[in-house]
Structure prediction request, 506 residues.
Amino acid sequence: MKNGSRYFIISAILILFITFPFSIQAKLLSKKTTISIESYTSDNSLLKSNNQQIKELNSISKTRAEHFASGNIINYIKSIFTPYLKYSKMSYLAGILIFLIYLFYFRYIDIYEHEPWKYIIFTFFAGILFADIGLVFYDISSVIFGWYMNDEVINDLFYTIFVIGGIEEIVKIFPLILLLRFTKIINEPIDYIVYGGVAALGFAFSENIMYFDRYGAGIIFGRALTAVVLHTSLTGIVAYGFVLRDYRQKKNAPLKMLFIAMILHGLYDFFLMNPTAKGVMIIAYFILFSTIMVFNKIVSNSLSNSPYYSKSIHLEIRKIQLLLIGGLTGVFILQYLLLIITESFDAANSNIIGSAIIAAIFIPALSVGFTKIELHPKKWKSIKISLLFRKITIDKEDPDLIDTFITFKPMTRNRIMLHYFPNSGEIYKQTMDSKGRAWFYVRLEKLGNSDKYNNKHIAIRSKFGNELLNEKKGIGMAGIYLINKNSNKPVFAGWCSVEELISVDR
Prediction:
């Protein structure tokens, strides 16, 4: 198991022990309270007496829904946009800081060709606008279809997937769709992920300042660690569907990726919001960590297949880690100071212990998790995501080594192997057998010396899975199969080390 994956699992187990007492306490709350604990994470203030705040939020939503139901368009639009004029300065300060941390993360991973600021800014504000448009769809679902969360498992599961997950994942991806439709600024795979991520940051900013204004400074750090990360990672998955469509000729990929993101988003919210599911809210954090790991693989594939790819350009991993550690630590400190200003020293001090424990787990996990990016030039690596008890393939690996020149050094030194090797050759064909194993057919430069086997062509298969060549060093180990002249069947002859032959003369 890789170090990054191991660290994620250890982090999730630690979170289980921290959140379990709170999950028990959550069961004692009113069953009509449906505030997401993604807003909570760093303290349990939302699990205490919040009846007045809940009533206020419900009142605002009710007023907006009443305008919608009555067809009062002007007042309805006002009810959507006027809150921006009333949110506190504290809310905007925290929201902007969180936005800037993750914005520069996306700038740092866009290593080949930085996107113009004017398009970045447009995408951010488009994300905010579409967050407000999402409210219209929420009102349609409640006023017209009468669909609410009612604490019943089946109802809430479908609501979180198809209403919450469906609405939010659709509106978050629309700024990217607009850029693809009306501009030519997107010209490499990573651009899809960057613009999708910035749109998600706009959506999260709108959501954050609303939560910060209504529930106070105590939830700032928690949302920076969980909600924002989930929004950007899931939108990255949907954006990758467009990458697969445009670069891999998989025309249905955007819909497939959207559906996967809806399910992940819905399950995450379900295990945080449904009273029955809250008892195992640890599953939500496994979903979060799993989504981050998939997002990293998406970034890896996108960068590796850029038309501007260059081995001389590298990700500055340490720089990204310092950004995340320093930025999120800054959010942690900001929350403490704002609690002192808006509430009291006692409130800030009681909050800081729980927040510090969560910070000690989440900040290292995110700084490691978001930097597990490995480049593999011109290769699309397989991407799978664990969805509870089943793995779903997002992108299937296609080991395209046709026209690659490789050299062979014999590791098995029997007579027949020494008739053929050492040698070099060109891969001219590759196939997959019924067991999913990749076979590569090679045209040798030096003819072998055998009356029984083909002296010009051989078949080889990697010793380790389907990766014939190590992605970093360009070397590997392969089984050599000579082709019988009479039956054309490959016959195992021995082992060779193989290495990519890089030559300007070939």
About this structure: The longest strand covers residues 490-500. Residues 3-395 form one domain. The mean pLDDT is 85. The chain has two domains: 3-395, 405-500.
